[in-house]
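Tutorial, part two.
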Amino acid sequence: MLRPDLLLQPTPKGLYCPPGDFYLDPVRGAVERAVISHGHSDHARGGHGAVLSHPHTLAIMAARYGENFAKSTQAVEYGEVIDINGVSVWLTPAGHILGSAQITVEYKGLRMTFTGDYKRRFDPTCARFEPVDGTHIFISEATFGLPVFRHPPTEHEMAKLLRNIADFPDRTHCVGAYSLGKAQRMIRHLRLAGHDAPIYIHGALEKLCAVYEDAGVPMGDLRPATMDDTSKAAREAFRGQVVIAPPGSFEGTWAQRFPDPLIGFASGWMSVRQRAKASGVELPLIISDHADWDELTDTVREVNPDELWVTYGREDALVRWAMLEGRRARPLRLVGYEEEAG
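Running the prediction step on this input gives:
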């Protein structure tokens, strides 16, 4: 069987496939051919030559970077096998955000699966993670790759938010959520829980929420959280309402325009109390778009690859766990990837 490093190689620009002559999620500079796992900006950049990805990811990239974000694009549905210079490539749901995919490459009998970012629990805005059978080399993220990260059930955290809305009906609930993926997920969870009232959104969310709507994910009654009229009457109209915005919006004075704002933040990082306290978060919601420690280790056991490669986050702990289980494992040390979708 082919040596793994002859099929995928970690480089400063990202994982490179020499026989196929393409990169997976290149983030440092433009490349001629890129296969993109999902639309977060630390994985999907504009300016490449040819980009292959799921149609929803291409729509997200167009919304973020403009219609001409690449010289050419190719939309590939989940399970559709594409030949690139003799290398078979296909996408499988990753469960991270809308359009997110694991990328499997197969060549000369070697099958390698790159997860990008993923999670295992239910998300009403995207297809659920599916393990890829027969994977020889499994390339896993490790954003929350420490045993301390064991996220509570999403239903528990949403119930906390709904209780606060009911218990403090005169306050404006300002929930920080990453603009792509988390914000739309929070909106959809609220709708499924019966919250049919208008939800006010920051301008940074408008185009991306429209992409989700176009993909068949209903957002309900969304209204702009703008306040051109700064009169007391205009401000009072937000009392008792839910406002969703990127987390950075609440670090300045933006949230203070709303009456008696109650600041929340939906992120797996809210399990770290110091982060919540330092950010002035009154209502930390531990809702993550990444796999926690148990999901990471359970997934490796389920896929049961010949070798585990680990990237994006707490690599050493997951590699150490794998080796204690008698598995072959190595860290990739890729750089340039951030915590945009905690």
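The longest strand covers residues 87-93. In part three we will examine how such features are distributed along the chain.
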